[in-house]
Amino acid sequence: MHDKFWVVFTVGFLSLTGIVGCDSALAPTQVEREAEIYLIPFKSITHPVYFYSFDGTRLAGQLDLPLDVQDPPLVFVIHHSGAVDRNAYQYLAARLVPGGYAVFRFDKRGTGQSDGSYGCCEEEDALAAYQAATALEGYDPDRVFVIAQSIGTQILSRRFDDFQRVRPVRGVVLLSSLLKGKEVLNIQSPLFIIVSDSEPDLAEITEAAAEAHRQMYGEDVSYFIAPHTEHTLFDVSGGPMDWSDPRWPLRFSEEAAESLLTWLKAHR
Questions:
Q1: Which of 23, 125, 171, 188 is most open to solvent, judged by the fewest CB atoms within 10 Å of its CB?
Q2: Once rounded to an integer, what is the mean pLDDT over residues 68-85?
Q3: Is it the case that residue 71 has pLDDT exceeding 50?
Q4: Is 198 exposed, middle or buried (0-12, 13-18, 19+ CB in 10 A)?
Q5: Do 156 and 86 touch, CB atoms closer than 8 A?
Q6: What sections of 5-108 are H helices per DSSP?
Q7: Integer angstrom CA distances of residue 27 from 32, 88, 136, 145, 242
Q8: How far is CA 237 from CA 23, 41, 44, 88, 252, in A?
């Protein structure tokens, strides 16, 4: 690691933010992700942030603060797989920020405003982003939540102790979890697991994982199975996802979103 950790925190501005992505076999290509799509409108005080990873690569992200909320809880997002930028989770920020949460998202290296080439250093970059996020002001440092999705759940499990040394978390949410049974045990924190009903190892990533966590720590742990969804929790009750449809961000499962907000509210 560098002797000094640099964060550039620019002046915030009121914004309406947008553009999303998804992690699945049918996920859009980079060209499709950059095409015009429907932006879910929400108001926030947005602070662009630049910071450096372990190898000196400059990365970029942003903190969205809710309006008229003093010291809100912070939600930090660890991405799913693929060369996606901060806007891959605009649909999530559009639900969380109006609910009173500060949200930090970042561009993977080689995407968005981040330097470097995509293809390495996912864990180190996620940890550097967490250091950058928790070094900022405007949120309650005693109420930090991490939301990790898909491959992000594995990153968090492998590096959880490192994240804790930077800033202890109030709770963790695993979206589209890939952690089976005892694989969740590295995460010693109140835990909420949200997965699709289409997962092939459904019992292992829900019942078995929750029971293993409960037996080891006695911590608050629960799970929710989102009906009629694909892996990344988008609603397919009306048919398969059409990633060329500019309004596909609106198909994120309402049941999944509601369960997430309910759990966060109970723990904030």
A1: 188
A2: 94
A3: yes
A4: middle
A5: no
A6: 30-34, 90-96
A7: 9, 11, 33, 26, 9
A8: 18, 24, 32, 22, 11
Q: How many CA atoms lie within 13 A of 3 on its CB side?
A: 0
Measured in whole angstroms, the distance separating CA 244 from the mean position of its chain's CA atoms is 23
- For residue 65, list its beta bridge partners: 45
Task: Burial-class residue 123 by CB neighbours within 10 Å (0-12, 13-18, 19+).
Answer: middle
The structure tokens 């970059």 sit at 125
| Tokens of residue 110, six digits | 């080689």
CA distances in angstroms from 225 to 56, 91, 115, 253, 260, listed in the order given: 40, 20, 37, 11, 11
The pTM assigned to this predicted structure is: 0.88
The rounded distance, in Å, linking the Cα atoms of 138 and 126 is 21
Identify the H or E element spanning 51.
strand 43-52
Q: Which residues contact 31 (CB under 8 A, 6 or more apart)?
A: none
* Residue 47 contacts residue 136 (beta carbons within 8 Å): yes
Q: How many CB atoms lie within 10 A of CB 117?
A: 11
Give CA–CA dist 97/42, Å, rounded: 8
| pLDDT digit string, tens, across residues 22-46 | 333 333 333 334 445 677 999 999 9
Q: How far apart are CA 196 and CA 210, in angstroms?
A: 16
Cα–Cα distance for residue pair 185/88, rounded to 1 Å? 28
* Vertex 266: Cα angle to 265 and 268 (nearest 5): 60
